[in-house]
């Protein structure tokens, strides 16, 4: 996310922080480069103008010019103004009052609406509620089949439509059936078009009148930049949307949509899609996003992710094994699987302070294919070999290499690295420096 923008802003602020004192001319020069970087990131022109003016007014005040660290003060101001621009605080789903509640997902065809419906249902369930998937796209049978399969995958009930029902009838019937399904939140996947048209909007207005939704969320493709902003504006004018879900954020190197939508529509971004899998939906935190854009990382999100994905009981068990020097390849395999749940190494490193620059990441991150190879090698070992790696002799190494589709050299490399890791862990535990649960948040 925001690869190009982060890199450009990093360059601007390096120049600024390199100066002991800042003058008005220095600040104006830096802001000119910030403005250019934002425009190149496809941020709305009026939004850029307002943002840079706000930064300029604050930057020329005493808090910067008379500060002992003027460069850092300027970065602080930019961080605060970016946060304010994107909405300041995270805004979740508003589902107060009597259940069942309805959440309408609207948007153009191809924005990822159907997949997002399943992701959102999974998220809603993680919050202790009981979602119900409702397919209201009668024009694309593939959408209904897709939603049904996704519902089965995440174990969320799915409303089976009658071929003759109109979209608003489907929603009304699903609303009346929600109680018998044990559901309290309907997630409605509405029809999209290749472009905004009057017929589509009229249908959505009818569905809105029928179910009186608690939320109308626009699903917009982040990679379309200013198009996503314009689409948000049109949908908001017709439906008075309550928020936006930006899909495909993992592929958005510019960031124009994320930085413009709130200012243009005055409606918050509530969630972001960060991958194709059903667990790749995250609440949108403006302050954390601003920190990521400026290369400061997003440690809080990483900790929350780890707390969700890692099993505390398993972590404590692992700590005991490490302290007793009983850590084996089976434990190593288990930890690899846990880490993979957090996302790609690029995503994880991107959340760490100072790792926002993609060039740094390319030097530091392990190749994903190497991790796949390691997993294949461990999977090809017997249980005994995973627990007692020292028994793996030449013939066993050849068998493991053949079974995993790798070479004996690959197996040797893994065993050598594991032995070194184990030795290093021994040294840490002897010094009393190891506390595994703290690694997981």
Summarize the structure.
By secondary structure, the protein is an alpha/beta fold.
Architecture blueprint of SSEs:
Elements: H1 3-17, H2 24-40, H3 45-59, H4 62-65, H5 70-85, E1 101-106, H6 113-126, E2 131-136, H7 141-154, H8 167-177, E3 185-190, H9 198-211, E4 215-221, H10 226-239, E5 243-247, H11 256-265, E6 269-273, E7 281-283, H12 286-293, H13 299-309, H14 312-323, H15 329-341, H16 345-350, H17 358-364, H18 368-379, H19 383-387, H20 394-404, H21 408-430, H22 436-439
Parallel strand pairs: 1-3, 1-4, 2-3, 4-5, 5-6
Antiparallel strand pairs: 6-7
Q: Rough shape?
A: flat
Strand percent estimate: 5-15%
Structurally, how many domains make up the residues? 3
CATH class of the largest domain: Alpha Beta
CATH topology of the largest domain: Rossmann fold
Major sheet description: 7 strands, mixed
Structural class: alpha/beta
The beta-strand count equals: 7
Number of H- or I-type helical stretches: 22
Oligomer: single chain
Radius of gyration: 26 Å
Describe the structure in your own words:
With 441 residues, the chain is of the alpha/beta class. The chain has three domains: 3-85, Up-down Bundle (Four Helix Bundle (Hemerythrin (Met), subunit A)), CATH 1.20.120.140; 101-286, P-loop containing nucleotide triphosphate hydrolases (Rossmann fold, 3-Layer(aba) Sandwich); 303-439, 434 Repressor (Amino-terminal Domain) (Orthogonal Bundle). It is built from 22 helices and seven strands. It has helices at residues 3-17, 24-40, 45-59, 62-65, 70-85, 113-126, 141-154, 167-177, 198-211, 226-239, 256-265, 286-293, 299-309, 312-323, 329-341, 345-350, 358-364, 368-379, 383-387, 394-404, 408-430, 436-439, and strands spanning 101-106, 131-136, 185-190, 215-221, 243-247, 269-273, 281-283. The chain has a seven-stranded mixed beta sheet, with helices on both faces. Strand 5, helix 11 and strand 6 form a beta-alpha-beta unit. The longest helix has 23 residues, at 408-430. The two termini are 23 Å apart. 38% of the residues are buried. Residues 352-356, 360-365 and 433-441 have low confidence and may be disordered.
